[in-house]
Design brief:
By secondary structure, the chain is α+β, with helices and mostly antiparallel strands. It is built from three helices and five strands; from the N terminus they run βαβααβββ. It has a five-stranded mixed β-sheet with strand order 2-1-5-3-4. A hairpin with a 2-residue loop joins strand 3 and strand 4. The termini are far apart.
Length: 82
């Protein structure tokens, strides 16, 4: 199992803050997890088409960052400052 968390506008769009997800064999890194989630339906696909940032175990992650059982993965839109 992995914990997937959604923040900011993504959380609102998906109406989901967090979920436990059984780690599928095709999910090996951040990019494959995004692809898996986007494949749920059109709503999820649109939500994951936007530019998102990710963190694995509370450390900024790249698309090729590996994911393993027990990890926490967070997705959020880029933060702007001002």
């Amino acid at each position: 199992m992995i914990t997937v968390r959604y923040f900011a506008q993504l959380k609102e769009n998906l109406d989901c803050a967090e979920e436990q997800l059984k780690l599928q064999t095709e999910i090996t890194d951040v990019q494959s997890l995004q692809h898996f989630l986007a494949g749920r339906d059109e709503h999820w696909q649109r939500s994951f088409e936007q530019r998102l940032m990710a963190a694995v175990n509370q450390e900024m992650a790249q698309s090729d960052t590996p994911i393993k059982a027990g990890d926490e993965v967070a997705f959020f839109p880029p933060v702007t400052g001002g």
